[in-house]
Design brief:
The complex is a heterotrimer of chains A (about 270), B (about 325) and C (about 300). Chain A is mainly alpha-helical. Chain A is built from 15 helices and no strands. Chain A has two domains: about 35 residues; about 230 residues, Orthogonal Bundle (MetI-like fold). By secondary structure, chain B is an alpha+beta fold. The radius of gyration of chain B is 25 Å and the shape is elongated. The two termini of chain B are about 45 Å apart. By secondary structure, chain C is mainly alpha-helical. Chain C folds into two domains: about 40 residues; about 220 residues, MetI-like (MetI-like fold, Orthogonal Bundle). Chain C is about 75% helix and about 0% strand. Chain C is globular, with a radius of gyration of 31 Å. Chain C starts with about 25 loop residues before the first helix and ends in a 6-residue tail after the last helix. Classes of the chains: A mainly alpha (about 270), B alpha+beta (about 325), C mainly alpha (about 300). Chains in contact: A-C, B-C. At the A-C interface, helix 1, helix 3, helix 4, helix 5 and helix 6 of A face helix 2, helix 4, helix 5, helix 6 and helix 7 of C.
């Protein structure tokens, strides 16, 4: 593309599109959050409701992400190392949450675990509340972020093949040793990328959680719901500050994503 | 003159790729640009094609100065080492590409493509995709594609480099036959001297950006212009400070006396039997080493062994190169 | 007399196994037993458990979170029979919401396919300082929570916009939000394919006489078509279900800016669950259908891999 007369115009058009669409909006949030000074911002983020929202968001992530990680690695191993009828179906089913609106996922969960749901009476008898409580939020978050680890780890497993693992077995290693010393180090990068995506999704989930939690401030509000609630109650300060907190989390996520992206090396080829 | 390059020089950063290279290629001939890897031959070929531009010098094709013309206006057919197939097109559409972009009528395109498919022996694979072909088949497709536009010259960049030995030998023969049928001026780049000598009418040896020598294979083998050409084109060894072909040397038993005034005394260090040929390593009196290539008969007759003292001399009319017993 | 048993092992070298009495030195040096593992029967049982237990566990998890809920959704949608289902989805507000959603999502997918291609092109073929930063910015919508995305867009293009551009309550506002959220899909699906394209292929086309436009149209773009379609499909599926980024800027005005997911949400809040399920089923079916069609189209335009 050295001498093409389209190069510069294209570059500026692209940068312009990105600026309008991405960079400007995000900077505005930061500006608005600290517009009235650090003190006001700090007060907003340390209010009881805000703190609870922070705590709840963190708790949900701490449960949902490991669950999906274990599931993701397990399913990847199963799909990559074993052939069985219906393997293609399992693969497709894992991808379902990507095609379904989070609102629909939340609704579907209510229909199973709500008071009038399929398991409703059973849950009632055992005094377990899922919907409009923390377990429901955890389930909703796990459901929407289900595919990410599998989608990142499975291709890696398929690509590296079984030779190294077979070699390890001939040397006397048992299955757990093989996993720990051979498989795991090889999938580390893809796994890190997948876990980061999962975490980002869980932190940022809104639609499914909105339906499932009942959004009671101070009790079942995650940070995302807190932001929406604040806007509704015209407390824009709290909303922007909450958004900043999530933006910072997103920036950390982005950095991790860029660093662990295994395809990164291909993308930054030098121009011929 | 079909192709005439004059004083072509090219640098890539600090590295000199070509240094004042001038070459003429005769119409209808098959010329090989031969030389070690990285020597500049591919660069020269690409400059002729218009895919790279020289820092200085000119390129004339059929009398026309095309130095500044872009590749697509030069009417050259170029074949890449890795074939550069259009992966999303079938073999037929690949070959037809040059004609389709010139908006030739459909019937004409079909006729020409069919003709070419027959010529390169790919008619039964016309609807396949390049990824479904073997390396040799892809190369033939690339050739057909380049020939479709009836180029003035055909340029081949290490066409057989990526193929395994057996396919390579077959295709070499096939290319020569094709050239003898079509008579398109062809320039071929290769680092394989055996391939160049077998296929080409003329060789141009390029080393480190410089043209070392141009001539017919036989000429260049027998009368190399310098040490590099001598050692690159065939086996060579040194006698008395001069380079000579091992099969142009003779060995006499020490007891038989010095055969010529220029003969050198030495001791056999090793005798290796390679079927019909025998390789004799000799340590010469002054401490140098050389090796002599003898026929099995001569070696048997001389009864050479390691440690034996011998005379080594150049074979010429005055010195019998074999024993009187074996001569006619 | 030297004791045969006094050998390597007695030298105290680390790692050397103790020499069994009476064995020859050479044998002792190289005779190593494999590391001890679990008892064979236990190991076999463990393997069996993993073989069956593993997939069973995975399927259970999947069922609890996704499969059962979806089944419940489908059942609930038809709990009042086909009549109730039909009434729910032909309700004017439902039809308006679905039409709006599908229309805007398709438009956004189309626009972002082109934008994504252009962005990928610049990322792969152009070189300038800060390119890595730009690449990271592309992923921002991916990492940002949807509600924050909605908030930022509202801040910039809403009532208090510094540009005095008020898109709140407009369809364009929804489009911008969806474009924001789906951009990464369109870029990242094309980028690796573009990076893989061989420069030689373009040179070959040039040498055969193709102009720059012909090279683009006949060689480059056709090779990218499957990837562009893939990105468009993902973008569409995501846009159709999007909620968080739209809810703030759209205002959820019925018949004007109320998307399907908002309508489903309000139905669920007013306890009209079967109706909500019915509309959900339609939405899911359409999204899945489009994904299948795109998958078919990709396979059709993609060239076969090596035989």
């Amino acid at each position: 593309m050295k001498r093409s007369r389209w190069r510069l115009p294209l570059r500026f058009a692209v940068l312009g599109y990105l600026a309008l669409l991405v960079i400007l909006p995000v900077s505005t949030v930061f500006y608005r959050a600290f517009q009235h000074g650090l003190g006001t911002a700090w007060d907003a983020i340390t209010s009881t409701d805000a703190l609870h929202a922070l705590w709840l968001t963190f708790l949900v992530a701490a449960i949902a992400v490991p669950l999906n990680t274990v599931f993701g690695v397990g399913v990847s191993l199963i799909l990559a190392r074993h052939r069985f009828p219906g393997a293609w179906l399992l693969d497709a089913l894992v991808d379902i949450p990507l095609a379904i609106s989070p609102v629909v996922i939340g609704l579907a969960l209510i229909l199973v675990y709500g008071h009038t749901g399929w398991f409703g009476s059973w849950l009632n008898t055992h005094h377990i509340t899922v919907i409009y409580a923390v377990p429901g939020i955890v389930m909703a978050s796990a459901a929407v972020s289900l595919p990410y680890v599998v989608r990142e780890v499975l291709p890696v497993l398929q690509e590296i093949g079984t030779e190294q693992e077979q070699a390890a077995r001939t040397l006397g290693a048992g299955p757990f040793t093989v996993f720990r010393r051979i498989t795991l180090p090889n999938i580390r990068r893809g796994l890190a990328y997948g876990v980061t995506l999962t975490t980002a999704r869980v932190l940022g989930e809104f639609g499914a959680v909105a339906i499932v939690s009942g959004a009671v401030a101070g009790k079942t509000e995650t940070l995302t719901l807190f932001i929406a609630d604040s806007i509704d109650s015209l407390d824009t300060q709290s909303a922007y500050v909450g958004a900043v907190a999530l933006c910072l989390a997103a920036l950390i996520v982005l950095t991790l994503l860029t660093v662990t992206d295994r395809k990164r090396d291909d993308w930054h080829k030098e121009v011929a | 003159m079909s192709i005439r390059v004059t004083s072509i020089s090219k640098r890539f950063g600090d590295a000199v790729a070509l240094d004042d290279v001038s070459l003429e290629v005769e119409s209808g001939s098959l010329t090989a640009l031969l030389g070690p890897s990285g020597g500049g031959k591919s660069t020269l070929l690409r400059i002729i094609a218009g895919l790279d531009r020289p820092d200085s010098g000119t390129v004339h094709i059929e009398g026309e100065d095309l130095t500044d013309a872009p590749a697509r206006q030069r009417g050259v057919g170029f074949c890449f080492q890795h074939y550069a197939p259009f992966r999303h097109l079938t073999v037929r559409r690949n070959i037809a590409f040059g004609l389709e972009i010139r908006h030739r009528p459909k019937a004409e395109v079909k006729a020409r493509v069919d003709e070419l498919l027959e010529l390169v022996g790919l008619a039964h694979l016309a609807e396949r995709y390049p990824s479904q072909l073997s390396g040799g088949q892809r190369q033939r497709m690339a050739l057909a594609r380049a020939l479709a536009i009836e180029p003035k010259v055909l340029l081949l960049d290490e066409p057989f480099g990526a193929l395994d030995a057996q396919v390579r030998t077959q295709l070499r023969r096939w290319l020569r036959d094709l050239h003898d049928t079509l008579h398109v001026t062809t320039v071929l780049v290769t680092h394989d001297q055996e391939e160049a000598m077998e296929v080409a009418d003329r060789l141009a040896i390029i080393n480190q950006g410089r043209l070392e020598q141009v001539g017919t294979p036989a000429d260049m083998y027998d009368h190399p212009a310098n040490e590099f050409v001598m050692t690159f084109l065939g086996p060579a060894t040194r006698l008395d400070g001069e380079w000579v072909r091992p099969h142009d040397l003779v060995v006499h038993r020490f007891e038989d006396g010095k055969p010529t005034t220029a003969a050198v005394e030495g001791t056999v260090s090793r005798v290796t039997h390679l079927g019909f040929e025998v390789k004799v390593d000799v340590e010469l009196a002054k401490g140098d080493e050389c090796w002599v290539q003898l026929s099995r008969g001569s070696a048997l007759e001389l009864g050479l062994e390691a440690g034996q003292r011998v005379w080594v001399a150049r074979a010429d009319a005055s010195t019998p190169s074999r024993s009187p017993m074996l001569s006619a | 007399m030297t004791d045969v048993g006094a050998t390597v092992g007695d030298l105290g070298l680390p790692g050397a196994p103790p020499a069994p009495a009476g064995s020859r030195p050479e044998q002792r040096r190289w005779h190593r037993r494999p590391p001890t593992g679990p008892h064979p029967a236990l190991a076999a049982a463990g393997r069996m458990a993993a073989r069956i237990g593993g997939p069973a566990l995975a399927v259970t998890y999947l069922s609890l979170l996704v499969l059962l809920p979806l089944a419940a959704l489908a059942t609930n949608a038809f709990s009042g029979g086909w009549g109730a289902f039909w009434r729910a989805i032909t309700q004017p507000e439902a039809v308006a919401a679905l039409e709006l959603t599908l229309g805007i999502s398709a438009a956004v997918a189309a626009v972002n396919s082109v934008a994504g291609l252009a962005i990928a092109w610049v990322l792969v073929r152009d070189d300038f300082r800060g390119k890595t930063l730009v690449s990271a910015v592309i992923d921002l919508p991916f990492a940002l929570p949807t509600i924050v995305a909605g908030l930022t867009l509202l801040a910039l293009y809403g009532p208090n916009s510094p540009f005095h551009v008020d898109l709140a309550g407009t369809r364009l506002g929804i489009g911008v939000a969806l474009a924001f959220v789906t951009l990464p899909f369109c870029v990242r699906s094309v980028q690796p394919v573009l990076a893989e394209l061989d420069a030689e292929t373009e040179e070959a086309a040039s040498s055969l006489g193709a102009s720059r436009r012909q090279v683009m149209g006949r060689v480059i773009l056709p090779s990218l078509l499957p990837a562009v379609l893939a990105g468009a499909g993902l973008a569409f599926a995501r846009a159709v279900g999007e909620y968080g980024s739209i809810v703030l800027i759209s205002g959820n005005i019925p018949f004007k800016t109320e998307v399907a997911s908002s309508w489903i949400f309000s139905l669920s809040q007013s306890d009209a669950l079967p109706a909500a399920s019915a509309v959900s089923v339609v939405l899911v079916t359409i999204a899945l259908f489009v994904l299948i069609v795109i998958g078919w189209a990709r396979r059709r335009f993609n060239v076969p891999e090596t035989v």
